[in-house]
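Lantibiotic ABC transporter ATP-binding protein
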Amino acid sequence: MDTILLETNHLQKKFGRASALSDVSLTVYKNSIYGLLGPNGAGKSTTLKLLTGILNPTSGDILFAGRKWQRSVLKDIGSLIESPPLYNNLTAFENVKVHATLLGLPDARIKEVLKIVDLQHAGKKRAGQFSMGMKQRLGIAIALLNHPKLLILDEPTNGLDPIGIQELRELIRSFPEKGITVILSSHMLSEVEQIADHIGIISSGCLGYQGKINKGDDLERLFMEVVKSTRGIEGGER
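Predicted structure tokens:
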């Protein structure tokens, strides 16, 4: 029987009178990849910010490993929300060193995470000279520093060329074998289909579908059905 690592129960988030999320109940299984699909403005980033404590829910619960979410669970969560937190004038090693120092981690861990994301040979090249794909991988290296049980990635392939997308896809697919569960958001159906074990489809702040990806599933049809069924419901990503 699959073990549940993270659950949300009827999450709601309002900004003043505007509703960004009205009903989101996720179930994420341990050592799997969960793809959160939705059009722009659907509520994907808001959901991930609630899971990482950047925002507080208006109502609803978040359970991590069977316990109600507290800030202490952040030690088991790594995340890359929006742009990687990089210093363009520093090398890959130096960028990770900044965060490792704050966490009290040795240089050996820096070398480990750089090897995981295949940046161990970046040398003295500054992050400002990196390709978009290299910057994303460096951001993931930083998110992996604390040996997270859960890795949260917000639109990780945005802006990448086909080679960068392929490299990142292979990297993300390797994480469950390392004991890392992944939640990633995307509006690209083809990418999620190739990488995720389970999907949730969110539109207008509501989770309209959740389930395991099976071979032969018509994700495009399912996606459009969910979007059409939630059209007109007040909500949207902030």
